[in-house]
């Protein structure tokens, strides 16, 4: 039995699956990741400011014009479509097998594929709010603004994306819900993540279920703890698993 068949059989035996994912989950949808050889951090290393700096809270507050120029051109992909990974996870949830998706991604592709129980550790580009009056806006408030720095038409305040920037804390409720979901899962699928970003990566330590599966093209610090490692492209692998489950 090959690795995909093994995972398909484990999925069939499971009643509470949790998927923990990162940027690699969306690369097959045309959204670049951060830390791979073709990732955002390396391809942008010759720009005036490192991406990590531009995506920090202090940089946002001091240079919002530079932040939004980078954010619009590099972080927003409104036309991206879900791939096989997003689609299979949504299907497993609809079948009552998957209890939650815990994601470090901010692209909203899990919801676009039909997933409902999505715990977004780092927020979402689709939620934005005025820093002055707290009015909420959708993504179009940022993408369609004629100003470099989008401003609230009601009060003139800066519209800030509800994404967790460097130097900002993760939402405590989302963290608690993620811990609870992982702790109560019988199968943990980990995909498209280097498992180096903290505190998000530390959440998988709360899993005490039956099987841990890594779906990742590159090695991670947690490889030795996995019961199964699949290095195929995650979207293609999940498409194949979906066929095996049909």
Automatic annotation (TrEMBL):
<dbReference type="InterPro" id="IPR026591">
    <property type="entry name" value="Sirtuin_cat_small_dom_sf"/>
</dbReference>
<feature type="active site" description="Proton acceptor">
    <location>
        <position position="122"/>
    </location>
</feature>
<feature type="binding site">
    <location>
        <position position="27"/>
    </location>
    <ligand>
        <name>NAD(+)</name>
    </ligand>
</feature>
<feature type="binding site">
    <location>
        <position position="104"/>
    </location>
    <ligand>
        <name>NAD(+)</name>
    </ligand>
</feature>
<keyword id="KW-0862">Zinc</keyword>
<feature type="binding site">
    <location>
        <position position="34"/>
    </location>
    <ligand>
        <name>nicotinamide</name>
    </ligand>
</feature>
<dbReference type="GO" id="GO:0017136">
    <property type="term" value="F:histone deacetylase activity, NAD-dependent"/>
</dbReference>
<dbReference type="InterPro" id="IPR050134">
    <property type="entry name" value="NAD-dep_sirtuin_deacylases"/>
</dbReference>
<keyword id="KW-0963">Cytoplasm</keyword>
<feature type="binding site">
    <location>
        <position position="133"/>
    </location>
    <ligand>
        <name>Zn(2+)</name>
    </ligand>
</feature>
<feature type="binding site">
    <location>
        <position position="193"/>
    </location>
    <ligand>
        <name>NAD(+)</name>
    </ligand>
</feature>
<dbReference type="GO" id="GO:0005737">
    <property type="term" value="C:cytoplasm"/>
</dbReference>
<keyword id="KW-0520">NAD</keyword>
<keyword id="KW-0479">Metal-binding</keyword>
<comment type="similarity">
    <text>Belongs to the sirtuin family. Class U subfamily.</text>
</comment>
<feature type="binding site">
    <location>
        <position position="216"/>
    </location>
    <ligand>
        <name>NAD(+)</name>
    </ligand>
</feature>
<dbReference type="InterPro" id="IPR003000">
    <property type="entry name" value="Sirtuin"/>
</dbReference>
<dbReference type="GO" id="GO:0008270">
    <property type="term" value="F:zinc ion binding"/>
</dbReference>
<dbReference type="InterPro" id="IPR026590">
    <property type="entry name" value="Ssirtuin_cat_dom"/>
</dbReference>
<keyword id="KW-0808">Transferase</keyword>
<feature type="binding site">
    <location>
        <position position="34"/>
    </location>
    <ligand>
        <name>NAD(+)</name>
    </ligand>
</feature>
<feature type="binding site">
    <location>
        <position position="130"/>
    </location>
    <ligand>
        <name>Zn(2+)</name>
    </ligand>
</feature>
<feature type="binding site">
    <location>
        <position position="155"/>
    </location>
    <ligand>
        <name>Zn(2+)</name>
    </ligand>
</feature>
<protein>
    <recommendedName>
        <fullName>NAD-dependent protein deacetylase</fullName>
        <ecNumber>2.3.1.286</ecNumber>
    </recommendedName>
</protein>
<feature type="binding site">
    <location>
        <position position="23"/>
    </location>
    <ligand>
        <name>NAD(+)</name>
    </ligand>
</feature>
<dbReference type="InterPro" id="IPR028628">
    <property type="entry name" value="Sirtuin_class_U"/>
</dbReference>
<feature type="domain" description="Deacetylase sirtuin-type">
    <location>
        <begin position="1"/>
        <end position="246"/>
    </location>
</feature>
<feature type="binding site">
    <location>
        <position position="194"/>
    </location>
    <ligand>
        <name>NAD(+)</name>
    </ligand>
</feature>
<feature type="binding site">
    <location>
        <position position="234"/>
    </location>
    <ligand>
        <name>NAD(+)</name>
    </ligand>
</feature>
<feature type="binding site">
    <location>
        <position position="107"/>
    </location>
    <ligand>
        <name>NAD(+)</name>
    </ligand>
</feature>
<feature type="binding site">
    <location>
        <position position="122"/>
    </location>
    <ligand>
        <name>NAD(+)</name>
    </ligand>
</feature>
<comment type="function">
    <text>NAD-dependent protein deacetylase which modulates the activities of several enzymes which are inactive in their acetylated form.</text>
</comment>
<feature type="binding site">
    <location>
        <position position="106"/>
    </location>
    <ligand>
        <name>NAD(+)</name>
    </ligand>
</feature>
<dbReference type="InterPro" id="IPR029035">
    <property type="entry name" value="DHS-like_NAD/FAD-binding_dom"/>
</dbReference>
<feature type="binding site">
    <location>
        <position position="35"/>
    </location>
    <ligand>
        <name>NAD(+)</name>
    </ligand>
</feature>
<dbReference type="Pfam" id="PF02146">
    <property type="entry name" value="SIR2"/>
</dbReference>
<dbReference type="GO" id="GO:0070403">
    <property type="term" value="F:NAD+ binding"/>
</dbReference>
<feature type="binding site">
    <location>
        <position position="107"/>
    </location>
    <ligand>
        <name>nicotinamide</name>
    </ligand>
</feature>
<feature type="binding site">
    <location>
        <position position="152"/>
    </location>
    <ligand>
        <name>Zn(2+)</name>
    </ligand>
</feature>
<feature type="binding site">
    <location>
        <position position="106"/>
    </location>
    <ligand>
        <name>nicotinamide</name>
    </ligand>
</feature>
